[in-house]
Design a protein that fits this description.
By secondary structure, the chain is mainly beta. The chain is built from 4 helices and 36 strands. The two termini are 54 Å apart.
């Protein structure tokens, strides 16, 4: 790598431009409507004799949506590259040495946007010609952090090795050895190699060696093995949760939250976060993470990307109990509770979102899907329909949300081919569960109605009597398939005796006990149906939910 190109790399100036905003119609908050621009790049378009190993860079006028920029980035002729960021500047590091004396074009398309969603107004292109010079210079190590012989180094601090030029990723990964041996996470960004690791033992000598298999993009190897060492600091101080976004205990949090960020007082042992008991994790929170949490060096911050809207009025939570810093010190206090509450009204039986739920037996098996259908906000009428794994509708509970109570108006069953089989209609809707059971803990109510049952072979009359009851305390339900728990679940019991008769003839009697567990924001998360007449029971638990 030439001195000129190194000086260009080292001398990158990150320029921040303040975008002018205008006021919206909601409180006069400034709105960014200014498109981003490119302030500078390396190389400049039209440059010749450009290094074949890069890295090349583009500096934007403001903070960008990094994913959109990376998706809009291309090269012609095409070559494999790695990207990384420094402030508002994106770096493009070739994975292999570019061809000599060849003209390349790096482009950023108009789909690249800033954090407010404003896109580039036109495609930005850099066209340059690489040098024909053959690289025979061996790479060297310019510096290390920590330095050789350093002491008092935090046991979780990443190791950074700076080479004289960009290095080949696969040779670096095999060239590094560390004593004592720990789990490593090696990141190569052109000439800078960062080694994240689990915590070294405190007050210990750490030996690092880079052997001669490490090579630059031209295939030139280190001339000799490069060893260095440092000593970790004694560490008896327990870490703590220093800050969070949203803040611990925050209320009115937007349901469109994009991520949760937890920041600790010092580097943590990321592997201590691997084995959370499901009793310490909010199942609703686990349901949001469509990607793995991002815990990157120096491991003092964990980012939890959220892939769907949060539920209204819910308190999301996690308990940090057995997590440790890099030296093995337990978090203080242990357990540490983190929680926040979203804005909006809380419901225990949502009828608009989520509008589908999947259930199965606790140990797995066939999955049934329930959906909210035909909901009328004016009357409160809705159908709670069950579909089998083949997508056939098999059972419909006709419900009515009226005031503070959800009533059952009737039930219809369907055969396996989807045709009507049995229908039961009540003359007066039967009170099933309170719409907000958390406000009625310990309540009891009477169930009494008449009705009609229709089958393929005839019809008969019904009477239904019994008792509804809510347990006086809430409970927690752990769901293995979701990897978390539902706290503050209200438990509703419905005891009924159903008498079927025709004229003066009694056709049958069925005593049943239905136990329904309702979680804040989600709805029914567990149901146990017991046929007291036959002694049979059926238990199902939630395995997924969402909106169409």
């Amino acid at each position: 790598m030439s001195a000129n190109s190194k000086s260009l790399l080292i001398g990158v100036l990150v320029i921040i431009a303040l975008a002018l905003g205008c006021s919206d119609d909601n409180g006069g908050a400034p709105v960014d409507k200014t498109p981003p621009t490119v302030l500078a790049s390396f190389p400049q378009s039209g440059a010749t004799e450009v290094t074949r190993s890069g890295p090349y860079w583009i500096a934007f006028s403001e903070a960008m949506d990094e994913e959109s920029v990376e998706g809009a980035l291309s090269a012609e002729p095409s070559f494999d590259f790695t990207t990384f960021w420094s402030g508002d500047t994106i770096f493009v590091a070739p994975d292999i040495l570019l061809l000599p004396a060849t003209t390349y074009t790096i482009s950023v398309g108009t789909s690249a946007n800033d954090l407010a969603g404003n896109t580039l107004e036109e495609i930005y292109e850099i066209t340059f010609t690489t040098t024909s010079e053959v690289d025979t210079t061996r790479p060297t190590i310019v510096m290390t952090q920590p330095e050789d012989g350093a002491s008092g180094i935090p046991s979780g601090m990443p190791i950074v090795i700076t080479f004289s030029e960009p290095m080949t990723r696969y040779t670096i990964e095999g060239a590094i050895s560390i004593e004592p041996s720990v789990q490593l996470e090696i990141t190569v960004e052109a000439s800078i190699v960062t080694i994240g690791h689990e915590g070294f033992p405190p007050d210990s000598l750490i030996k690092v060696t880079i052997d001669t298999t490490a090579a630059d993009l031209a295939g030139n190897h280190l001339a000799s093995e490069y060893p260095f060492s440092f000593r970790t600091a004694p560490d008896l101080i327990r870490p703590y949760l220093a800050s969070a976004s949203p803040a611990k205990g925050a209320t009115g949090v937007s349901t469109n939250l994009s991520k949760i960020v937890l920041t600790f007082s010092e580097p943590m042992d990321p592997y201590s976060f691997d084995d959370f008991p499901i009793e310490d994790l909010d199942a609703r929170l686990m349901h949001l993470f469509l990607e793995e949490p991002e815990f990157e060096p120096p491991y003092s911050t964990i980012t939890l990307p959220i892939g769907e809207p949060l539920l209204s009025g819910c308190t999301y939570w996690v308990i940090l109990r057995n997590v440790t810093d890099a030296a093995g010190n337990l978090i203080d206090p242990s357990p540490t509770h983190y929680y926040f509450t979203t804005r909006g009204s809380l419901t225990y039986f949502p009828v608009t979102y989520p509008n589908w739920w999947e259930y199965s037996e606790p140990w797995g098996g066939a999955i049934e899907t329930f959906r909210i259908e035909n909901y009328s906000p004016s009357t409160g009428d809705l159908d709670y329909a069950r579909y089998d794994e083949g997508g056939i509708r098999r059972h419909v509970e006709s419900l009515q949300l009226s005031g503070s109570t959800i009533y059952i108006r009737g039930v219809t069953d369907y055969t396996q081919d989807g045709t009507w089989d049995f229908a039961m209609t009540f003359d007066d809707p039967l009170p099933y569960i309170p719409a907000d059971p958390h406000l009625r803990l310990g309540d009891t109510w009477q169930v009494q109605t008449t009705g009609t049952a229709n089958t393929q072979t005839g019809s008969y009359d019904l009477t239904v009597s019994g008792t509804g009851q809510i347990e006086p305390d809430t409970t927690q339900i752990a769901v293995e398939r979701l990897g978390g728990s539902f706290r503050n679940c209200a438990v509703v019991h419905l005891y009924t005796t159903l008498l079927a008769y025709s004229g003066t003839d009694t056709l049958g009697v069925m005593d049943s006990h239905i136990i329904t567990y309702l979680a804040p924001g989600v709805g029914i998360v567990k149901r146990i149906q017991i046929d007291l007449s036959e002694g049979d029971s059926d238990t199902t638990v939630i395995s997924d939910w969402g909106a169409d």
